[in-house]
Amino acid sequence: MTVRNELRLGVNVDHVATIRNARGGVHPDPVRAAQLAAAAGADGITAHLREDRRHIIDSDIERLRAEIALPLNFEMAATREMVDIALRHKPHAACIVPERREERTTEGGLDAAGQLAHLLPMVRELGSAGIRVSLFIAADRQQIDAAVALGAPVVELHTGTYCEAIEAGPEAFERERARIEDAARYGAGLGLEIHAGHGLTFDTVKPIAAIPVIRELNIGHFLIGEAVFIGLEQSIRTMRGLMDEARATADALS
Ligand code: PXP
Predict the structure, then answer these.
(1) How far is the centre of ligand 1, averaged over its atoms, from the C-alpha of 198 (Å)?
(2) How many folded domains does the chain comprise?
(3) Which of 34, 85, 176, 216 has the most CB atoms in a 10 Å sphere around its CB?
(4) pLDDT over threshold 50, residue 3
């Protein structure tokens, strides 16, 4: 019997908060979106508390912890303020991401290799509190080696460039996919748990979901945008279905 490789879906609810904050007030509520995501087959909820609180705010994190049974993946910059917030809420996981105020979204991976001394105490402190630390990095062996050196148990590979490459034609798209696969296999070989995310859509998710060593995909913007047209539940169910299809095909071929 073939044992199916588990592939979890983390639903990022940041952009429900983006819409809420456009008007102020409480609607639409990212915690309600998280409840719906759980019902639609999400395995976890991801939320990024940015330094400028442009979408998720502190009370959202508090409520996500109190009201949602799914594991919370808390995305955070490598700052003292964010480490303290993570230690207070004790999410299941903390994903350390690079953050620049002027960027629209998390544009690149964390330069873990270039800031070992800055990151090491934070990775240790979060890990000692029982929080599973993940580093959001480019699909780059040097960054993976840095994650190992830091003792982070998880890396999340940035799929933004891969997703954009779909516009550049099949060769470029395949080249970027292969880069993600190479990094994923390299990291898994070193004992890291491999996640991936950023920019994934119905059109780009399957080749990534088919990489057998990847254990989790974190997806937000597309799911929330598509929800405008087909509803959040359907948006998540369709994504989940595509992931499962890709993984089942990969399992059958292995
Ligand atoms: N993973 C990480 C670490 C991220 O920072 C983001 C964006 O907040 C995502 C996944 C989800 O990306 P997207 O919203 O483009 O699906």
Answers:
(1) 4
(2) 1
(3) 34
(4) no
Question: Ligand 1 pocket check: which of 75, 195, 198 to mutate, most ligand atoms within 8 Å of Cβ?
Answer: 198
Least confident range from 2-6, 23-27, 219-223, 249-253: namely: 2-6
Distance CA 205, CA 41 (A): 16
User: What percent of the chain is predicted at pLDDT more than 90?
Assistant: 91
Candidates 104, 94, 100; CA nearest to 153 is 94
Q: Cα(163)–Cα(194) distance, rounded to whole angstroms?
A: 18
Kindly report the pTM of this predicted structure.
0.96
| Residue ranges making up the domain that contains 51 | 3-253
Q: pLDDT at position 1, please? A: 40
With contact defined as beta carbons under 8 Å apart, do 224 and 16 qualify?
yes
Residues with CB under 6 Å of ligand 1 are: 12, 14, 48, 75, 95, 97, 105-106, 136, 156, 197-200, 218-222
Q: What are the pLDDT digits (tens) for 44-101?
A: 999 999 999 999 999 999 999 999 999 999 999 999 999 999 999 999 999 999 987 6
Calpha distance 35→17 (Å, rounded): 14
Q: Which residues are catalytic?
A: 48, 75, 198
Cβ-Cβ contacts under 8 Å for 87 (sequence gap 6 or more): 125, 126, 129, 131
Judge contact between 197 and 159, C-beta under 8 A: yes
Report the C-alpha gap between 10 and 71 in whole angstroms: 9
Which CATH number does the domain housing residue 219 bear?
3.20.20.70
Distance (Å) from CA 250 to ligand 1 centroid: 24
